[in-house]
Design brief:
Low-confidence stretches of chain B: none
Number of helices of chain A: 4
Strand order of the largest sheet of chain A: 2-3-4-5-6
Strand content of chain B: 35-45%
Structural class of chain A: alpha+beta
Low-confidence stretches of chain A: none
Mean pLDDT of chain B: 93
Number of domains of chain A: 1
Distance between the termini of chain A: 38 Å
Largest interface: A-B, 57 and 50 residues
Order of helices and strands of chain A: EHHEEEEHEH
Helix content of chain A: 40-55%
Strand order of the largest sheet of chain B: 3-2-4
Largest sheet of chain A: 5 strands, antiparallel
Radius of gyration of chain A: 19 Å
Number of strands of chain B: 5
Number of helices of chain B: 1
Strand content of chain A: 15-25%
Oligomer: heterodimer
Shape of chain B: globular
Amino acid sequence: MLGSRRFRARPRPPAYDPGRERRAEIRARELLRSVVGEEAFAMYAELGFIAVRPEGGEYGYLLYPHRSIVAFDGRSSDLLSEYCVGFPDTSDPGGGTRLPDSDDVLAKWMALRGDERRLIGDSNMHLPGRHVDPGQVRRDLHRLSQWEGRRRSEGGARRHESGRAAAQ
Amino acid sequence: MKPGHGDVLLAEGDIDLIADEERLVAEFRRQLEEGMWAAVPTSDAGGRHEALMVREFDEIPRDAARVIFFPRAAGG
């Protein structure tokens, strides 16, 4: 769609609708998938968070919905700090201020990818364990490592298979 | 991105048409004046996905397909 541009965001919700949050989350998941790509979306769908590693890979962040961003050492996986940040929408208090879970993760992802310093500067930094259980984060880093290893081996097997098929 | 709703189309148009561009510029400014942040999703040929935060309409790449507005960050 070269040359055209679409702006997305917000309408006014009805006073009460029991299915509203669920539908909002479904929409938010599709938006997340379209922005972060299949790999990161699969990570979120299977693990419940997205890992972001800035250039160099010396450290990374775990992005959970509506929880602090957790920074970790890229080599040792030691926990470094927590960044408490939210994206409250106060424009229509009657409609709530809390984004759907997947929108919250996407907001963190875009802000970190687009302007890491600004997001970190706007957040409140704490030592690990202030809001997110360090034991849970360590387990999540272990699950992440296993998940990434599995994806690598599956990708390698797919490349191997396609190489054999191409050679036949 | 909106609480209780997810994403909603605010405006769309062809950046090469003056009337469309004026409408898009006006909506962009309105969103930022309401305190929203704006991001342009990007991806390269290798499948790497990124986001570009923009503060001015002119910072949006000419070939950008969409701009996403979301509430600005606040320390919790």
